[in-house]
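Supplementary Data S3. Sequence and structure tokens for construct A.
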Amino acid sequence: MELKDADKTAVRPPDSHLDLLERPLFAHFATLAGDGSPRVNPMWFLWDNQAGVFKLTHTSQRHNYRFLQRSPRVALSVTDPDDQYRYIQVRGEIEHVEPDPAGAFYNTLQQRYRGRTSEVRDRDVRVVLTLRPTAFKVRG
């Protein structure tokens, strides 16, 4: 799934909340189920400041992946653990899904979040999701 070039806008997070994207904090990732109801899951992510996109990992066997096939519109939020009233909310679309059969990106996120890596047992069904933001909202 690819967004058209005209739909790719350079929406950037405010500098005041960039630290929430640079730290290894969990994102609350929202997708839309087949009936249109939202589903939210904690997810690891990597913010690519240069490209202006989020990268997440998932498997092609889970419900969120199937939901994204139907509707690539998503949202995520990241809360500051030191001040729960400070957060950043992101709305956007999954612009690209790339197979990750070696689990390389999952290992990148393991290192970021756990400080170590281990075998990626489901590597054969791993994918990298690229989220292009369309809007940011912040508080605190």
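Construct B, processed identically:
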Amino acid sequence: MRMYKLMTLAAVCALWIPANASATTWEMDAAHSGIEFSVRHMMVSTVKGRFEKVKGTVELDEKEVAKSTVEVTIDLSSVNTNEPKRDGHLKSPDFFDVAKFPTATFKSTKVQKVGKNKLKVTGELSLHGVSKPIVLDVEGPTDPFKTPFGTTVRGVHATGKIDRKDFEIGWNKVLDNGGVVVGNEVTLELNAELVEKVAAPSAPAVQTAPAAKPAAPATKPAK
């Protein structure tokens, strides 16, 4: 009977072990991470910008990297091209329409190792109310190391390209020479410093005192 109870307990414990138990969780350090973009302007120059507010989480399985996952959220209202009027136009319904679509998200669907410290990450980018698959070429992550502040960090760099028309962001003006004001191809670049998320220590078990035994009923004195 005791052996049966032990086997049952082991089976229950096994059910609580995560399927990706070897994975570690890493969060983007907002102060040292960012997403930049670049696009052709009037077919003669390239304009760059960045999103100041980005957050993301990586579940990294070093033994089986294909089991790793990536999630990133971009606050589109944080767009910065160093030109306030242009930033205001990008936030308008002509482009991001941040009043209606305040964020863009990326969720990985496939992670492939394609070389030493090189990955190809496929995922779904949701932008402007449209979700489309995109592919990112990733360098890293770098080897982890301890900082003077007691945290463990590592770096990652990723690039990709999208066609803004695929996300129904199609505002443009035709120039006299036949060109357009804004190019359709947008280059994306992510530089991220990842900080390992340390699980909070579990609270010690509280031991309760055994319940007091009920008092024995008083016995009547013998006559």
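The first strand starts at residue 24 and ends at 28. Residues 2-16 form the longest helix (15 residues).
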